[in-house]
Protein backbone atom coordinates (compact mmCIF):
# COMPACT_ATOMS: atom_id res chain seq x y z
CA UNK A 1 0.00 0.00 0.00
CA UNK A 2 2.89 2.35 0.79
CA UNK A 3 4.38 1.80 -2.69
CA UNK A 4 1.03 2.60 -4.32
CA UNK A 5 0.80 5.88 -2.42
CA UNK A 6 4.38 6.75 -3.40
CA UNK A 7 3.71 6.00 -7.06
CA UNK A 8 0.48 8.02 -7.02
CA UNK A 9 2.21 10.96 -5.33
CA UNK A 10 5.05 10.85 -7.87
CA UNK A 11 2.57 10.67 -10.77
CA UNK A 12 0.66 13.67 -9.39
CA UNK A 13 3.89 15.64 -9.03
CA UNK A 14 4.91 14.88 -12.61
CA UNK A 15 1.45 15.81 -13.89
CA UNK A 16 1.49 19.14 -12.02
CA UNK A 17 5.00 19.93 -13.22
CA UNK A 18 4.21 19.10 -16.83
CA UNK A 19 0.94 21.03 -16.74
CA UNK A 20 2.61 24.11 -15.23
CA UNK A 21 5.20 24.18 -17.99
CA UNK A 22 2.83 23.54 -20.89
CA UNK A 23 2.68 26.04 -23.73
CA UNK A 24 -0.63 27.21 -25.16
CA UNK A 25 -1.11 27.97 -28.85
CA UNK A 26 -4.18 29.81 -30.02
CA UNK A 27 -5.65 33.23 -30.56
CA UNK A 28 -4.82 36.33 -28.53
CA UNK A 29 -6.90 39.47 -28.33
CA UNK A 30 -6.35 42.69 -26.44
CA UNK A 31 -8.24 44.79 -23.91
CA UNK A 32 -7.74 48.05 -22.04
CA UNK A 33 -8.66 50.03 -18.96
CA UNK A 34 -10.58 49.21 -15.84
CA UNK A 35 -10.09 47.02 -12.81
CA UNK A 36 -8.83 43.47 -13.08
CA UNK A 37 -9.85 40.31 -11.24
CA UNK A 38 -6.73 40.67 -9.08
CA UNK A 39 -7.91 44.09 -7.87
CA UNK A 40 -5.32 45.98 -9.89
CA UNK A 41 -5.54 47.77 -13.20
CA UNK A 42 -4.62 46.80 -16.74
CA UNK A 43 -0.97 47.79 -17.07
CA UNK A 44 1.37 48.24 -20.00
CA UNK A 45 2.61 44.65 -19.94
CA UNK A 46 -0.18 42.68 -18.28
CA UNK A 47 -2.50 39.96 -19.49
CA UNK A 48 -5.55 37.88 -18.66
CA UNK A 49 -5.38 34.08 -18.55
CA UNK A 50 -8.01 31.57 -17.44
CA UNK A 51 -5.92 29.43 -15.10
CA UNK A 52 -2.45 30.81 -14.36
CA UNK A 53 -2.11 32.36 -10.89
CA UNK A 54 -1.92 36.14 -10.64
CA UNK A 55 1.69 37.32 -10.72
CA UNK A 56 2.81 34.56 -13.11
CA UNK A 57 4.95 35.68 -16.02
CA UNK A 58 4.54 34.44 -19.58
CA UNK A 59 6.25 35.02 -22.90
CA UNK A 60 3.72 35.64 -25.66
CA UNK A 61 5.00 35.23 -29.23
CA UNK A 62 3.07 36.32 -32.31
CA UNK A 63 3.52 33.33 -34.64
CA UNK A 64 2.96 35.48 -37.74
CA UNK A 65 5.87 37.89 -37.19
CA UNK A 66 7.85 36.19 -34.37
CA UNK A 67 7.65 39.25 -32.07
CA UNK A 68 7.44 38.43 -28.37
CA UNK A 69 6.88 40.16 -25.03
CA UNK A 70 6.97 39.10 -21.39
CA UNK A 71 3.72 39.79 -19.55
CA UNK A 72 2.43 39.47 -15.99
CA UNK A 73 -0.92 37.76 -15.43
CA UNK A 74 -3.23 40.00 -13.38
CA UNK A 75 -6.69 39.21 -14.74
CA UNK A 76 -9.01 36.37 -15.78
CA UNK A 77 -10.10 35.68 -19.32
CA UNK A 78 -10.45 35.56 -22.23
CA UNK A 79 -14.04 34.37 -22.23
CA UNK A 80 -14.38 33.82 -25.98
CA UNK A 81 -13.82 30.31 -27.31
CA UNK A 82 -10.54 29.62 -29.08
CA UNK A 83 -8.68 32.45 -27.38
CA UNK A 84 -5.86 31.59 -24.99
CA UNK A 85 -4.90 35.03 -23.65
CA UNK A 86 -5.97 38.67 -23.58
CA UNK A 87 -3.09 41.16 -23.59
CA UNK A 88 -2.90 44.87 -22.86
CA UNK A 89 -3.04 47.35 -25.75
CA UNK A 90 0.65 48.16 -25.24
CA UNK A 91 1.50 44.47 -25.56
CA UNK A 92 -0.72 44.15 -28.66
CA UNK A 93 1.21 47.06 -30.21
CA UNK A 94 4.55 45.44 -29.34
CA UNK A 95 3.35 42.13 -30.79
CA UNK A 96 2.18 43.90 -33.94
CA UNK A 97 -1.48 42.87 -33.98
CA UNK A 98 -3.43 45.74 -32.47
CA UNK A 99 -4.87 46.86 -35.81
CA UNK A 100 -5.88 43.26 -36.65
CA UNK A 101 -7.47 42.76 -33.23
CA UNK A 102 -6.53 39.08 -32.95
CA UNK A 103 -3.31 37.13 -33.54
CA UNK A 104 -2.17 33.50 -33.54
CA UNK A 105 0.25 33.22 -30.59
CA UNK A 106 2.23 30.87 -28.39
CA UNK A 107 2.05 31.46 -24.61
CA UNK A 108 5.00 30.09 -22.63
CA UNK A 109 4.93 30.20 -18.81
CA UNK A 110 8.23 31.64 -17.51
CA UNK A 111 7.39 31.71 -13.80
CA UNK A 112 4.26 30.43 -12.14
CA UNK A 113 3.34 32.38 -8.98
CA UNK A 114 2.22 30.54 -5.88
CA UNK A 115 -1.54 30.39 -5.52
In total, the number of strands is 6
The Rg value, from CA coordinates, equals: 16 Å
**What overall geometry do the principal axes of the alpha carbons give?**
globular
- Name the CATH architecture: Beta Barrel
Number of helices: 2
CATH class: Mainly Beta
Strand-residue fraction? Answer: 35-45%
Low-pLDDT regions: 4-19
- What is the domain total for the residues? 1
Describe the largest sheet. 6 strands, mixed, barrel
**Sheet with most strands: strand arrangement:** 1-5-2-4-3-6
The helix/strand series, from N terminus to C terminus, equals: HEEEEEHE
End-to-end Cα distance: 31 Å
CATH topology, anyone? Barwin-like endoglucanases
Q: Bin the helical content.
A: 10-25%
In CATH terms, the superfamily is RlpA-like domain
Mean pLDDT: 85
Q: What do you see in this structure?
A:
There is one protein chain. The chain has a single domain, classed as Beta Barrel (Barwin-like endoglucanases), CATH 2.40.40.10. Helix content is 23%, strand content 36%. A 6-stranded mixed beta barrel has the order 1-5-2-4-3-6. The radius of gyration is 16 Å and the shape is globular.
